[in-house]
Amino acid sequence: MINRFDTIKEKTFGKAKEGINYYERVGVYGIVFNDIGQVAIMESPYGYFLPGGGLEQNETLEECLAREFKEELGCGISIKKFIGKATKYYYSEVSKQYRHPIGYFYLVSTDIQVINSIERDQVLLWMDSHECIKQMHEHQVWAIEKARQ
């Protein structure tokens, strides 16, 4: 599907279990820090996530990221740098299925100072990094930590 990105080194969390069919989802996520170093996080009924989402057919990673920020936060972005690719193998109690999210992560800035969630089932929060560790999937925490370096 995204062959041109297959050569990107990745960090993998968890291990695929033999004989298990994993639901695979490719997503692109942006890491935004505010003036006091907190990270923009989306709270949804399913947990806490970085702003971003699923890659649509024929969309580049950058196009997906821009679309997701427009949909979720109502703002445009400037991409500062590519952080990396990370995946995770796990069983989701919420969806009752084995999942394998594949995330591409970028450090971004927004085109406005104050941003708010515009999606009905999501709320924008600003979290300190140590709070992210407790609340989020480890592959997204990994990307936040890499963005701080």
Could you estimate the helical fraction of the residues in percent?
Answer: 10-25%
As a percent range, the share of strand residues is 35-45%
How would the global form be characterised?
globular
| Mean pLDDT level | 89
Tally of extended strands? 9
Structural class: alpha+beta
Low-confidence stretches: none
**Sheet with the most strands, sense and barrel status:** 6 strands, mixed
- String of helices and strands: EEEEEHEEEEHH
Distance between the termini: 30 Å
- Provide a count of the helices: 3
Radius of gyration, Cα only, in angstroms?
15 Å
Describe the structure.
It is a single chain. It is built from 3 helices and 9 strands, in the order E-E-E-E-E-H-E-E-E-E-H-H. With 149 residues, the chain is α+β, with helices and mostly antiparallel strands. Strands 1, 2, 5, 6, 7 and 8 form a 6-stranded mixed sheet that branches. Strand 3 and strand 4 (47-49) form a beta hairpin. The longest helix has 13 residues, at 61-73. The chain is globular and about 50 Å long. The mean pLDDT is 89.
